[in-house]
Design a protein that fits this description.
The protein is mostly beta strands. It is built from no helices and eleven strands. Strands 2, 4, 5, 6, 9, 10 and 11 form a seven-stranded mixed sheet that branches. A four-stranded antiparallel sheet has the order 1-3-8-7, with no helix packed on it. It is globular. It starts with a strand and ends with a strand.
Length: 116
């Protein structure tokens, strides 16, 4: 079992920055990939960024060049640094941890609101 806890959401003006954090606990040695997804009402949850256990990162085209994902193995934490935020980045952001058994664990979500 892996427990996932996000923090760092909030309200920011367009062009601003926010950093999201996600701490994993429990059976952390089973975690391979950690990532961030986001979801707006009526839409499917979509991948924002992910990072593997060998530090290979992947980004949605819509956030490339603006968002950076990083991972602190000592703290079992993944971060999402978001810059040049746009109103269309407004969503609930969810942290995901995938284990070596391809089981997904999710956080409760954190709201990010970008005002124009």
């Amino acid at each position: 079992q892996v427990h996932v806890m996000e923090s760092g959401g909030g309200v920011v003006q367009a062009g601003g920055s926010l950093r999201l954090s996600c701490a994993a606990s429990g059976n952390i040695f089973s975690i391979t990939t950690m990532g961030w997804f986001r979801q707006t009402p009526g839409a499917q949850r979509e991948l924002v960024a992910s990072i593997t256990s060998d530090d290979r990162s992947n980004y949605a085209d819509s956030v490339k060049g603006r968002f950076t994902i990083s991972r602190d193995y000592a703290k079992n934490t993944v971060y999402l640094q978001m810059s040049s935020l746009k109103p269309e980045d407004t969503a609930v952001y969810y942290c995901n941890c995938r284990t070596n058994w391809r089981v997904d664990y999710w956080g409760q979500g954190t709201q990010v609101t970008v005002s124009s």
